[in-house]
Amino acid sequence: MTTITQVKKYLNYINGEWVSSSRGCVERSINPANKNEVVGLIQSSTEEDVNKAVAAAKRAQKKWRSLSGTERGDFLYKIANSMERRLDEIAETMTKEMGKTLPEAKGETMRGISILRYYAGEGMRKTGDVIPSSDSQALMFTTRVPLGVVGVISPWNFPVAIPIWKMAPALIYGNTVVIKPAQEAAVTAAKIIECIDEAGIPTGVVNMVTGSGSIVGTAIVNHSDVNGITFTGSNATGKKIGQAALARGAKYQLEMGGKNPVIIAGDADLDLAVEGTISGGLRSTGQKCTATSRVFVQADVYDSFKEKLLERVKEITIGNGMESSTWMGPCTSENQLNTVLSYIEKGKGEGATLLYGGERYTANGAEDGFYVYPTIFDDVTNEMVIAQEEIFGPVLALIKVNTIEEALTLANDVEFGLSASIYTKDIGTMMSFINEMDAGLVRINSETAGVELQAPFGGMKQSSSHSREQGQAAIEFFTAIKTVFVKA
Ligand code: NAP
Ligand code: MG
Predict the structure, then answer these.
(1) Global pTM?
(2) Residue 186 CA: which ligand 1 atom is closest?
C-alpha cells in the first residue's frame, strides 16, 4: 500500500505560481482500479483562493486581449507541443486517476493537442462582417470582443479534452481563465496546467483552483468579476449554475447529461450495429455523455441482434486500464459504482430481464477496484427508470419496436437530447431519423459516441443550455458582438 509521504502533492496555480490552498487542506485522489493507491494529493481550496485567482485573471485581462490573435495562437501551439512531449505521462496519469484504458487516455490527450492547434489557427480567421449602412458615407461592421474572465467548471470523464475544449477558445478570443476541474481528476488537470506554465503563458491568464464543487465551484459562479461560466457536468449541478449566473447577469453555457438511443432497423448490417452498440455503450465504462444507453430494435431482427450482442459482450475483458489486455476499466469512483449498482437494482425491481452482468466484478483480485460487469437488460419498456434516467455506467436497455416510427417516438420520449444513432441501409429511414430525432448530434451507421473537434457539439432539451461548443461555434459563447458604425 502506498503511504501518504511518498505521494506527490499538487498545488493550485494562481497568478503564475504554484500555491497551497489558503486553509492548507489536501485530499487524496485515488486510483479506481485499486482504491489503496493514491495518485496524488490535491488542494481542497476555499472562496479566498477563488478570489485570488479571479483577481489575477482580471489583472491579466487588458494585456492578454490587446495581443493579436496570432500572438495568442502562438501560446496555444506551445501548450500543444508541451503536451505532445508529455503525452505518455498525461495519459498514464489519466488512466490511474479515473480508470479509462490507456489507449483511450492517449487518444483523448491527442485530441486535446489537436483542439489547441485548431483554436491556435482560429486566431487568424475572420471574426466579423461588413454590413451595408443606410448612410452611404459610413462603414458599418461587426467585431468580436472577449467576455473578460471566464470560469471553467469541468467533469472527470474527459479530464483533458473538456478543459481544453473550453480553455482553448476562451484564450484565443482574448479571455482569461479560472478553472475548477473535477476533484476526481484534479491531478490530470494539474498536468495540463503544467504544460500551460511550460509554454510561458503570461502571468494570470490561466489559473487553476481545485476543491469541491459546492465551495470552489459556487465561489466562481457567484463572483461578480467572472463574466462568463462554461460548465459541463450533471443536470442537477448545471441547473444550479444556470440559475445563479442568470441572477447576476453573467453569460453561461451548460453541457449536461444524455440518454442516448440507438435504433437498429430491420435492414441494418447487424454486425456493424452490434459493434457500434458495444463501443458506444460500454467504452469508457459507459461514462460518456454521448454513451448509448437505450437500444431500440425492430422486432424482425430483435432475436438475432440480441444473440450477436450477447456473444460480443461476453468477450469483454474487464481490468486495470493500464494493462493492454483490458477492454473496459473500472467506474471512476465508489460513488459512481454505487449509482450504477443501484440503477441495476431498479431495473430488476421494475421487471426488466437481466440478460448479462448486473453485479460488481471482483474476479482476479479486482475487489479493491470499482469494477462492474457490462450489463444488458432485456424486455425494457420506455417508462422504466432505466430507460429514462442517465445511469452513466456500462448498462444497455433493449427495447423491442415494430416500426421505425414507433422507435423514433420512443427515442424522443425522454427529457434529454444529446446524441442519437441509427443503423439502416434505407435512405428514407435515414431522412426520417435526421428530420425527426430531437438530438444535437445524429449519426447514421455509426455509434452515438463520436464527436469531432471541428464541428459544433451540444444537446437539445435538458442536455444543454442550447449553446454549442467546439469548432467555430465556440466563438458564440466566448465573445460578444460589437457593431461598429464609422463615419469619417
Ligand atoms: P457533476 O457532479 O455535475 O460535476 C461537474 C463539475 O461541477 C465538477 O467539477 C464538480 O465539482 C462541479 N460542481 C459540483 N457541484 C457544484 C456546484 N454547486 N457549483 C459549481 N460547481 C459544482 O458531474 P460529473 O459527475 O463530474 O460528470 C458527469 C456528468 O457530466 C454526466 O451527467 C455527464 O452526462 C455529463 N457530461 C456532459 C458532457 C456534455 O458535453 N454534454 C460531457 C461530459 C460529461 P466536484 O469536483 O465536487 O465534483
Ligand atoms: Mg480517482
Answers:
(1) 0.97
(2) 46
